[in-house]
Amino acid sequence: MRQDPYGRAQYGQQTQRRGGGFNLRWIILIGFALYALYYWSSNRVVDPYTGEKVLIDNSIDAEEEKAMGLQAYQEILSQEPPLPADAEISQQVRTIAQRLIEKVGVVEAQIAADHGTQPNGIWKDFDWAVNVIPSEQANAFCLPGGKMAVYTGLIPVAQNADAVAVVMGHEIAHALLRHGAQRMSQQKLSQIGQMAGAMSGMDAQQQQMMMSALGYGYLLPYAREHETQADEVGLLLAAAACFDPQEAVPLWERMGEASGGQAPPEFASTHPNPGTRIQNLSALMPKAMEYRRKFCTQAN
Predict the structure, then answer these.
(1) In whole angstroms, what is the distance from residue 24 CA to residue 43 CA?
(2) Where are the alpha helices (DSSP H) in 86-244?
(3) Residue 221: Cβ within 10 Å count
(4) Residue 1 to residue 47: CA distance in whole angstroms
(5) What residues contact residue 63 under an 8 Å CB cut-off, 6+ apart?
(6) Do 130 and 9 share a domain, yes or no?
(7) Residues taking part in catalysis
(8) Burial call 76-98: b when 16+ CB within 10 Å, e when fewer
């Protein structure tokens, strides 16, 4: 390296340039971090089902969620045609769904009272619908706005109406808890992180490392928390609708067996593993039985 007579001029200039680039990167990262913090803090609402503040973008209202849910539902049914409405299994599943839906109001009110919050009542504007889709999947879903489907593969694993109700209650709970809107808001935070990495001059490997850290440290635990919340609300809903909540434990034991142990480790998954799920549900059982005694007012 060429030097001036004092051995410092050009070296000092290079250091200054490097330092300037380094400082610029940190200025950009700090700027995006402040924006992410502002977005996070200014888009928080109280969830009546948990009593906690959650991230939901203020620009996403329940009507928009419902419209997106309807569009997704129509696309799914066009690709996976459901069984006829008069099929026996379709009628049985619709009966289960109707019993659950009838108890949404009292369950929401009780849970909100337990947390000292006010019910949000978004379910009052839901256009409920349920179909049965022929498939080997042991699964079900409920989209924002109340559009539901049960896959026929769930029936032999569930084995009885009580277990089916536990699964359907879980899926309804996702819609009641507005987990779809929460996930969209989380995705915006992820996009802010991606923009910060790109504009600060991080290379592809550094950006990947940052997004992996965000995923394992924030997004995946948040998704597992959603599943745990839906398990609780769904169990209470099934109990209030006169189904036996104690069927939840053997159901998830069978679910674990059906998966053949192929699930990823819990820290790398969006769902709690069956063992954790069973433990949580077992701890909730006294509360579920209390809801059953309180709200199951007649034999169904």
Answers:
(1) 29
(2) 88-102, 104-115, 154-158, 161-176, 179-199, 204-214, 220-240
(3) 14
(4) 63
(5) 125
(6) no
(7) 171
(8) beeeeebbeeeeeebeebbebbe
| Residue 209 falls inside a structural domain | no
Specify whether 23 is located in the same domain as 64.
no
| pLDDT tops 50 at residue 229 | yes
Cα 233 to its chain centre, rounded Å, is 13
Cα–Cα distance between 50 and 241 in angstroms, integer?
20
- For residues 100-127, give the mean pLDDT: 95
Dihedral Cα 137, 138, 144, 146, nearest 10 deg: 110
189 within some domain:
no
pLDDT at 202: 54
What would the two tokens of residue 176 be?
């009641």
Calpha distance 284→245 (Å, rounded)? 10
Residues 181-194 have pLDDT tens digits of 888 887 776 666 56
Residue 101 sits in the same domain as residue 132: yes
Number of domains in the chain: 2
At 120, is the secondary structure helix, strand, or coil? coil
Tell me how many helices (H) and strands (E) the chain has.
Answer: 11, 5
Which stretch of DSSP H or E encloses residue 131?
strand 129-133
What digits encode the pLDDT tens for the residues 83-98? 999 999 999 999 999 9
Containing domain of residue 6, as a range?
A: 1-42
Regarding whether 145 and 171 lie in a shared domain, the answer is yes
Q: Which tokens hold the place of 66? A: 């419902």
3 state DSSP class of 288: helix
**Could you tell me if 244 and 121 lie in one domain?**
yes
**CA 50, 52, 56: angle at the middle one, nearest 5?**
100
